[in-house]
Amino acid sequence: MRVARGSGTATDSNDSRVALAAENTEPDGDQADRYTVRSVAKAMRLIDIVADGPPEGLTLSDLARSLGASKSTTLALARTLTTSGVLRHARPGPRYCLGTALIRLGDITEGSCRSAKSAGPRWPS
Fold first, then answer.
1. Distance (Å, whole) CA 20 – CA 22
2. Worst-scoring range by mean pLDDT, 69-73, 96-100, 106-110?
3. Beta bridge pairs of residue 89
4. How many CB atoms within 10 Å of residue 17?
5. Cβ atoms within 10 A of the Cβ of 95, count?
6. Is residue 16 within 8 Å of residue 33, measured between CB atoms?
7. Residue 30: its pLDDT value, please?
8. Strand pairing partners for 58?
9. Got the DSSP string for 35-99?
10. Domains in the chain and their CATH numbers?
11. From CA 39, how far away is CA 35, in angstroms rounded?
């Protein structure tokens, strides 16, 4: 979308903001702010979709449909997440499940939460 700068009216400016806001709305209705990286947000949604899926995993077609993205975009995201261990290929068939990298992240998170809990209150009562 092209937005003219400098010579527009206030109405043009408001229309442009509305159009940009609509363009930045995520498929689930959430408003993406200017610091949101769309590809990262899509990857995080893909992880949630796989997590909510059946234990045997989801096919690329299932993932693309749920994500509301093309198969090529979904494949690129899934392969990237598979390379990092966040997703893994499941057999039979090409299906995607959660990967073991999430176990490691969960262990780290659990340890840091335990450490914070055992440290006690930060301020004296």
1. 5
2. 106-110
3. 96
4. 11
5. 19
6. no
7. 57
8. 96
9. T--HHHHHHHHHHHHHHHS-TT-EEHHHHHHHHTS-HHHHHHHHHHHHHTTSEEEETTTTEEEE-
10. 37-116 (1.10.10.10)
11. 12
Structure tokens at 22: 């609509």
- Nearest Cα neighbor of 89 from 111, 67, 116, 58 is 58
CB 32 within 8 A of CB 24: yes
24: DSSP letter: T
109: three-class secondary structure by DSSP:
helix
State how far the Cα of 14 lies from the Cα of 18, in Å rounded to an integer: 6
Tokens 């299932």 belong to residue: 62
pLDDT at position 83 is 96
Closest CA to 47 of 6, 10, 85, 18: 85
